[in-house]
Design goal:
With 821 residues, this protein is mainly β. The protein folds into 3 domains: 23-157, Immunoglobulins (Immunoglobulin-like, Sandwich); 304-315 and 328-354 and 433-777 and 787-813; 357-428, no CATH class. A 9-stranded antiparallel β-sheet has the order 25-26-27-28-29-35-34-31-30, with no helix packed on it. The protein has a 6-stranded mixed β-sheet with strand order 20-19-24-23-22-21, with helices on one face. Strands 14, 15, 16, 17 and 18 form a 5-stranded antiparallel β-sheet that branches. The longest helix has 11 residues, at 23-33. Residues 1-26, 775-802 are annotated as: Disordered.
């Protein structure tokens, strides 16, 4: 064999004659000549969690060849509570130049990283039930393909209120916590149709059927994608649908209204007032300058008391709904006094007709003689007894004699039958009305299976596949009831995305069972069915002889009476905890509650100075848990989550929830849980409470508070001693929730003489929409008592004659986190 002169070499022989630097030379010289790639305010790596700055750490991997891997740093361990915005900031140094860099999540509940392919990324801390670590890795690759990485750990803790309580005040602005900003979005009179003139706000404006209405109340945001289709995840474009409950008539006309008490009313004034009621839908878009509405959007719509509507459900076609407008009892005109609301998984709005009875003229002294005893009983029970009607619209003599726009508000039986007069027109109101916010060509539908009353709200319980869904409703008047409607049809998930949304409403809302609540002293309760032929709901009932189920639903109050429901302290909004399914009901107040009528569910009777009147002046919030945690249950457990009161009132018998200056309140009204699409509605959902108060306004304007309310049964029993006017005392044992403490906090205070009502958010919870109703409601055209919203952020004081306007405000957290957390 021929042997080679030099044997096999593994490369240890130097054969390079050049003078290029060695690897050791490169390492030694690296730090004196390296380039630095930085992001953020400092070369040090930081991570910011809700305002706290974390120290830095780093790690790097070695490369092979003639180049050294980048040097990467990333934020060190820190913590953030759910809903807070977290900022991850890294630094990279490298000789050869960085080609790619990115943040990735290594472990923990999955979050969505914004700007993940840059050195600075952000995410919203997810909802958790206990401290949970999330690990993130930052990886950088240079031009040589060499790579380095660093990791940081964020410990996410359960959600906590993320603001300092706003102090009570009587300022003529909307006050929000430090770290938050507020802006005005839509206002009374804003034009929502192309070419409609800008609002002058001097009482001369007309065309309210093409403008935002007055007294904005409950509202809901429905998302839109870039193509203008339904998108339940959109945070930048949507349709805001808002109720318009009533009017401040003094500001709608140049010099105030004419003959508003009894008439005759000018037709132009009455038309303006009618059209300012109802519902509005407007498209919203978030741009670089923030949120704005689109005046000429094809989604914009007004539903007024004059809009054609369909009657749906068991009362459709009943003789009780026959009018000259609809001789078959299948259709009607409009909706009025819309207060609270609800929404459905198939993306429709449920708007609720509340104090509608007072709009009708029906002097009982003369009209009762024209009615049957049964009719008189029903009309009296619903309060259709006004001599002239709230605004005397029936007194208008229209220019067109065939125009029945005003005649319909006269409910007297003056003709030969219900097809010749409007005796049945009141029966057309008091319903839940379903509206498709995405299709303005579809007429609203009145869902009669849900009963007729002073509907304050209609909030759904949890939708579970195969289970019959339920909707919870308060009847807003003193000593009225809490109701529940259970659909006849089990829920099918596919129906949530059906494009024919009102047809899905037909499926779930037109057949089912209406129940009313009975609260027992031992903390239990029953749902009593309001079904013809069951219990006392029969044709032989001595109080009211029910004819059929249409009669029962049209006169649900009477059916609830005979079934023995519990009279409550003015039931208002309902809200359902999206995690637990527990139902919350605001009981705003009750001036007629006495020591003789106090019970476990309505236990307080007291005097709150400076008033000398007795009753439940400040109201409370009751909650219930369905047996078996199912919407189909016919029984429940209950307690009182919160007793509203001033912090200076007797802690033993009045301020039972131990409220302080940071969270005392009166007359809770609006009620809403955060959306389950973000941390405010997950694990431990955030509850928003709004007030409509006259008892506390000597101390503060109306307000909105945020709370983590706990669970039914987290407190115990309490004995309340009530004192009657004659000095005698009586005791009531009630069920009380755990004292809220710092888990209840004042978030917002409104302007002068307003009500805070209506609240919703974008799906990500970063934008909160809040309704401000009737600021300056006690003023006149000549001497307004508020100048809001012109006073909001004003550089100079608005003119003395500036008229106030109801409006929607947008509230955001300055760092971009979930509002409230």
């Amino acid at each position: 064999m021929l042997e080679l002169e030099s044997g096999y070499s593994d490369g240890d022989i130097d054969t390079n004659p050049t003078s290029n630097p060695s690897l050791n030379d490169l390492v030694d010289r690296r730090y004196s000549r390296r380039d630095t790639l930085k992001s953020g305010v400092s070369a040090a790596a930081i991570a910011v969690f809700g305002g706290s700055v974390l120290a830095a750490c780093d790690s790097n991997s070695s490369g092979n060849g003639n180049n050294t891997a980048p040097v990467v740093t990333a934020g060190s361990s820190g913590s953030a509570s759910a809903g807070r915005l977290v900022t991850l900031t890294s630094t990279v140094t490298d000789d050869g130049g960085i080609v790619t860099s990115a943040w990735t999540q290594v472990s923990g509940p999955t979050v969505s990283l914004t700007n993940a392919n840059t050195a600075t990324a952000t995410f919203t801390a997810p909802a958790v039930s206990a401290a949970t670590p999330l690990v993130f890795r930052y990886i950088a690759t240079d031009q040589q393909g060499l790579q380095a990485s660093a990791e940081t750990t964020v410990s996410v803790t359960p959600a906590a209120l993320g603001f300092t309580a706003v102090a009570k005040n009587k300022n003529d602005v909307v006050t929000v916590p430090t770290g938050y900003s507020v802006g005005v979005l839509t206002r009374l009179g804003d034009p929502i149709v192309k070419d409609v003139a800008a609002f002058k706000n001097d009482g001369t404006d007309t065309g309210y059927g093409s403008r935002i209405g007055d007294h904005g109340d409950a509202l809901h945001y429905f998302g839109l994608n870039a193509a203008g289709a339904r998108d339940d995840t959109s945070n930048t474009r949507g349709v805001l649908v808002q109720n318009h409950e009533n009017i401040t008539v003094a500001y709608l006309h140049a010099s105030g209204p004419t003959n508003v008490a009894a008439g005759p009313r000018p037709e132009a004034e009455a038309l303006k007032e009618i059209e300012a009621h109802g519902v509005s839908a407007v498209e919203l878009v978030r741009g670089t300058a923030g949120w704005a509405y689109v005046q000429d959007s094809t989604f914009n719509r007004r539903v007024t008391p004059n809009t054609a509507v369909d009657i749906s459900g068991p009362v459709r076609g009943s003789a009780l709904l026959v009018t000259p407008y609809s001789t078959g009892g299948t259709a009607g005109r409009g909706t009025i006094n819309n207060c609270a609301n609800g929404s459905t998984p198939w993306a429709t709005l449920l708007t609720c007709e509340e104090n509608w009875a007072g709009y009708f003229r029906r002097p009982a002294a003369t009209d009762n003689a024209r009615r049957t005893p049964k009719e008189v009983t029903a009309l009296s029970r619903y309060g259709v007894t006004s001599t002239n009607g709230n605004y005397a619209w029936a007194s208008v003599t229209p220019a067109d004699a065939s125009n029945t726009t005003y005649r319909r508000w006269d409910a007297q039986a003056t003709g030969t039958s219900s097809t010749t007069d409007y005796r049945n027109e009141p029966n057309q109101f008091g319903w839940v009305v379903e509206i498709d916010p995405y299709d303005r060509s579809k007429a609203p539908r009145k869902r009669t299976a849900l009963g007729r009353m002073n509907h304050e709200g209609c909030w759904p319980g949890p939708f579970v596949a195969g289970r019959k869904p339920a909707f919870y409703m308060g009847d807003d008047a003193q000593n009225e009831y809490l109701y529940k409607f259970v659909s006849a049809t089990g829920w099918a998930e596919a129906d949530a995305t059906n494009a024919d949304r009102l047809a899905i409403g037909d499926k779930y809302l037109d057949a089912g069972t209406l129940y009313v609540a009975k609260f027992n002293a031992d903390g239990t309760g029953q749902w009593l069915p309001l079904v013809f032929g069951q219990g006392n709901v029969v044709s032989t009932n001595a109080t009211y002889a029910f004819a059929d189920q249409a009669d029962v639903l049209t006169h649900a109050r009477l059916a609830a009476d005979v079934q023995g429901a519990t009279r409550m302290d003015r039931p208002e909004w309902t809200a359902v905890n999206p995690v637990t399914g527990e139902v919350y009901l605001t009981l705003t107040n009750n001036a007629s509650r006495t020591t003789a009528t106090a019970d476990a569910a309505n236990p307080r009777v007291y005097v709150d100075p400076p008033s000398t009147a007795r009753g439940n002046r400040n109201g409370h919030i009751i909650r219930l848990r369905e047996t078996g945690d199912t919407t189909e249950a016919t029984s429940f457990n209950w307690d009182i989550y919160l007793f509203a009161a001033g912090s200076d009132l007797d802690a033993t018998n009045i301020n039972l929830s131990a409220l302080t200056a940071d969270n005392d309140l009166s007359s809770p009204d609006g009620l809403w849980f955060g959306r389950p699409s973000n941390a405010s509605g997950q694990v431990t959902p955030l509850l928003w409470i709004q007030t409509d108060d006259g008892a506390f306004t000597d101390v503060t304007n109306n307000q909105m508070l945020a709370a983590f309310p706990g669970r039914v049964g987290d407190g115990g029993t309490r004995t309340v001693t009530n004192t009657a006017a004659d000095g005698t005392t009586s005791q009531v044992v009630t069920r009380i929730g755990a004292a809220p403490g710092t888990n209840l906090r004042r978030f917002l205070v409104g302007p002068v003489e307003c009500e805070i009502t209506g609240v919703d958010s974008t799906p990500d919870g970063r934008t909160l929409f809040v309704g401000i109703q009737h600021p300056g409601e006690n003023g006149t055209a000549a001497t307004p008592t508020s100048k809001w919203p012109d006073s909001q952020g004003a550089v100079s004081t608005p003119p003395a004659t500036t008229r106030p306007r109801s409006a929607v405000v947008v509230v955001v957290k300055n760092d971009g986190g979930v509002v409230g957390l």
